[in-house]
């Protein structure tokens, strides 16, 4: 028996050694500066999310028209991935040195201390577009938002979204409710709507973020625009009373019945349908909802009845309602190793033409300058465009600066918070513990 | 022929290709994963040797321990349910329906061939509430009760998950146990009957002891399958509400692929393997003791 054990031990140790030894060679690459001095690949491969059909369609349209010369020099090729698999897919591709020229990535991945950012595997677009004399095509507000969220100009702003409260003007007029200026007025409006038999808000709780956004906005209005930077930098904690109030506010809204029956398993698309069919009076969402609002088949309440207001101020809070939450869509990074002259031409062409192409063809507001005239813009889109031009200061969203695990936790636990199975204190304490663990 | 099989060299030559494939496809990945448990990082960031840190982290990780509890609870309840229902169905096939059981066997087995994700979506729509209310809540409303949001509570989600698991898998266990019951010689049953055994006494003292080996195999099979439950709980409610129905497999998937922590993900996989091993050995040991008794 003893001799058998003796024989087994070195065998097992050998197996572990075989498994472990090659790992030592798998060290992270040295960080590079991210400038575009790479070698052109055989094709301009773009990896986008299955869920984002617009981007693929608009890039294809550019390849056939405005960027025809660039496409002939380096043909456009599309690769797709499920948005939920982005981190896994990009990590795998990057580790095999097989990143496409232009690719979707997770928010945390492209930040300076993220896996791609730290390894110098994301291109600095400002540097490249300045070299190409095309940097002027990126709107300063969009560039500022990208830099704020990602810690550098590492993503192209294919969208430039504001977030706020969409409301049904007809229902508000019917009940004589004016646009809420403070959070207390918002709650009062919700109570009035409930009493009149309307569902105050349509929020797709199944995705988590439509609910956590409300916590974040309350905190930004209560603490100020740098609220979440303070959490990131360890200067404040989510369990501090002024942050805790955000979770308490959301729980109060849910307990009052503001989100209607079954909101926990409601998908965001179904929530949009509830708002556009007049069943719900308000919806906190981004300006990406414009495509649904401008679609007559979806919008049964009429474009003229859709209003858009910022999340109201919290009385006594340090934030103001003109600090709009803004984002530039999912991160779309570029591979510095593949950024040769032809890829640089492609990216410059996109910067020059995407703004006009996306606005005229899909009604999408991007962070690129609209070069050329676009006619027939729907009224609501025009209003948002004007609103965008007036913005001086933006804020991000609740989880924007969280690590992946805390980001996921915020969304999954919000169901427990809104159903009263978790107290606001527990919710924020769990989240803070996760943030601390990732430091 | 005996000379050929008696030659150790020949045996080695014949076995070597299969053995090499087995080692390459099974042993190496398992050993690789075992090795990864002692590292932290991913293929992009690189790996750093952390010794037993991942294991100590696991023991103090509330989310991981909660996932262990979810996995064990689901495995135990699902195993009891599907083996019991499967056994009752098998008895029905053999002693009541007899040769006319083919149609019922096929009908009850049919859900087994449906994709788990489709079944999960089906059950999710059964218990839906709100604008697209499902039949379960319609019945509750018709009986005068208020709609219940099953997916908002741990027990509601777990109950739905168990119901869908039983619905889709009891037919499989019924067929498995049915083949075991067919092996019991008719003469034994006949002589037991002549000795006055009937109904429950026959099942308890004759049928169960004689079908014990296939029953134990079913339990081991079921425990191992349900301990590794993943797709049904993911598709049903994404391991929610919160993470209260997230099994160890889902936590492992999220850790490795969403949070890109391959080392800790491997540690969780190792714990899951050990869990399966412990359950299997426990059932084996208890069966051996029973046989010795």
TrEMBL record, chain A:
Belongs to the bacterial solute-binding protein 1 family. The lineage of its organism: Bacteria, Bacillati, Actinomycetota, Actinomycetes, Jiangellales. SUPFAM superfamilies: Periplasmic binding protein-like II (SSF53850). This is Extracellular solute-binding protein. Pfam families: SBP_bac_1. Keywords: Signal, Transport. It comes from Jiangella asiatica. It comes from the Bacteria. Residues 1-24 form the signal peptide.
TrEMBL record, chain B:
Pfam families: BPD_transp_1 (PF00528). Residues 68-283 form the ABC transmembrane type-1 domain. GO terms for biological process: transmembrane transport. It is found in: Cell membrane. Gene3D superfamilies: MetI-like (1.10.3720.10). The keyword Transport applies. One of its GO terms (cellular component) is plasma membrane. It is a multi-pass membrane protein. PROSITE patterns: ABC_TM1. Keywords: Cell membrane, Membrane, Transmembrane, Transmembrane helix, Transport. The chain crosses the membrane at residues 12-32, 72-96, 108-127, 161-181, 202-223, 262-284. InterPro entries: MetI-like, MetI-like_sf, UgpAE/MalFG_permease. Its main location: membrane. Belongs to the binding-protein-dependent transport system permease family. This is Sugar ABC transporter permease. The lineage of its organism: Bacteria, Bacillati, Actinomycetota, Actinomycetes, Jiangellales.
